Amino acid sequence: MNERRVRGKDGERSATSATSANNPFAKFESLPEERREAIVNAAVETFGRNDYKSASTEAIARRAGISKGLLFFYFKNKKELYLYLMEHLMSKIEALVVDEEFYQIDDFFELFLYAAERKRDVLERFPFLMEFSIRAFYPDHKDIKDTMDNWNWSKIDLMFNTYFKNVRFDRFRDDVDPRYVVDLMIWLADGYMHQQRALRRPISIDGMMDEMRRWCEMLRAYAYKEEYR
């Protein structure tokens, strides 16, 4: 990578250092897309196959075709790589889910199901993304548990404020908070996944979509004014 040099009182330094200070992943994101995707795909596969503790950065580097030292040149440690993956994959999924039709839907429950079906399509297209997403939603290692729990809930608030802005909330009963209904949907999904994991059953995307349609019907009857049910 070519760098423009500037001189200050402390001597010569790279002009990219200021950029790196603002974006800790600037070195990684300056790579060609093909190389970045190879590293991301290798990391998603490794974290999808293994819990956080067992996921080997050496295996990630080997799958990506780079050295472990070079991997740590881009990411200072495994936790930083993991958090980068979460942000990167969230942005990628949102770009695929939020299409032209998305903002034309003004019904809360129709939009919820539309987004869920689009996410299902994305998960089915990318191997190991489902496993990685489930492990990220249920972090079990002390290095990332608190960080990921807070990250997951902060993204829910962002999702609600950003992607439900065209929803007609006037359809809700006056005594029902739409944001609380989002929490109910999340708690139902959480309970479903906990049950499947406790029974050592694989998480079926189609099975979960069937359940989600039932939850939407149930919550529509509870939350909407009679004329909109």
TrEMBL record:
Q: Which stretches does UniProt call biased (Polar residues)?
A: 14-23
Disordered, as annotated region: 1-25
DNA-binding: present as a keyword of the record? yes
Question: Biased-composition ranges for Basic and acidic residues?
Answer: 1-13
Could you tell me the keywords of this UniProt record? DNA-binding
InterPro entries the record matches: Homeodomain-like_sf, HTH-type_TetR-like_transc_reg, HTH_TetR, Tet_transcr_reg_TetR-rel_C_sf
Identify the residues that the record assigns to the HTH tetR-type domain, covering every copy: 33-93
DNA-binding region, as residue ranges, is located at: 56-75
The answer to keyword DNA-binding applying to this record is yes
Q: What PANTHER family does the record point to? A: HTH-TYPE TRANSCRIPTIONAL REPRESSOR SCO4008, TRANSCRIPTIONAL REPRESSOR
Question: What protein name is recorded for this chain?
Answer: TetR/AcrR family transcriptional regulator
Q: What is the organism of origin for this protein?
A: Gordonibacter faecis
